Amino acid sequence: MNWSKKVLYALLLSLALSLSFEGGVASACSRIAMPFSPVLTEVGFAENGNLSAWVKVDAGFTKHMDLVITDSRGEQIKQIPVKSITKAKLVTEYVPAFGGGEFAVEVRTGAITIAAKEFRDIPDDKYLVSLVVRDFDPSETAKGGLSIEPPCGRITLESDAVSLYITGGESEKDDLVFPGGISIDEDGDIEITINITAAYAKAKFYLVIYNEEEKEVKRITINTKNPRISSSSLNLPAGKYEVRLEVTNEGQTAHTKSVRWVIGEPDSTGTVVIPSGAEFPGGITVNTNGTITIVLQSQEWLTQYNVFLVATDHYGKEVQRIKLNLAKPQISIAELKLLTGSYSVYIEIVDKQGRVAAHSLPAVFTVNLTNQIAVFIDGQLQVYPKNPIEIDGRTLVPLRAIFESLGARVEWDEATQTVTAYKDGNVIQLTIGSKIAYKNGERIVLDVPAQLLNGDTTLVPVRFVSEALGAKVQWDPYSRSVVITQ
After folding, report:
1. Which of 48, 297, 389, 411 would be 281's cystine partner, CB 3.0–4.6 Å?
2. Has this prediction a pTM greater than 0.70?
């Protein structure tokens, strides 16, 4: 609630109080303190699309509650009745008394739920959501923000607003809705909103970009703590794209609706004529011996430009920039002095005025400074209780940990020593000690049998991850890393 509203409430309540005194003695229904202002927190969408939130409401105001949704212009979009507070508890809070000091009031705290159907008629966008409560039935009085009627008064209170992205989503399964949304700001940067709730604690979020031919050209794991992505960090050529968010959670997948995104040509005085992306006159090759080879097809025009090798982490943040010596077309990954992680590297050509003229397509590589086999999923380093191991030249990985990281739900049957995994309608079964697994009833032959490590961790050949879940799995011999992409 803004301060102007609070001041207005205080003045009107003081008026009600003065009118309710007779001979210095307050009547039975007079107020001696401000009511407790409602609190709205932990707002988000559950897997079934219902909105849930945690609230605190003055006990005298719980019979008439509404969730109010307003757009960025401050216009009210919808007002949804809140029927009750569940898991409710009565607590004591203290509010300022009109005569000075504090006054104890009873406050009801608990959860509220709004059915998913209430949001289906609201266009996908970012909104402000607040809780409005009253100590009277608004259907019995004229419409208005606040009405005081002595001696007892009729009061409307409103919580501070919470920002929330509302979307119907384009879910592959009706019972999973993407908990957030995406927009493009005026600078062309991608703004991401994710409403994290307990139901999505283990979920994986991705930014997926498609070109005009509807071909996926980029997939990036989203850092939920900093979900903003600069267009310049994606190394995409000028053109028109479709951008959407994807979530995998407990074996299910959902997407937001696609957002149109246009990357324009760089500002130029006529000297920038070098194409970017697939048409760039050169490229990068990451070699299995830990070196990077830089190729430029022509060097006649390079006198008017500076050429850099740029490395970014898997969130798209630039972490290293080296001015290239074109007489030395190969450098080692060690020269980049990077920590353990997954990186992209590309060639960037900059004119003498410091303007980016062009950049190559990126190449991806991993760095592993540990003495263990590392696992990367969509560029993100995974940390598991049990590390992958190598037996007789075969790399075995922890099944449950990796399957759950890829969004699958995993069950273990102790009696039969059988693992069952579920994802996107697929069912995978595997028995310890067997080289035969089943995907939707069809046989998959493993290189080596599934093994149980220390009695609690199922290990499988790394290739099985690809065959079972359709993920792309690669082995990086230089960094001793398993690299998995969905």
Report:
1. 297
2. no
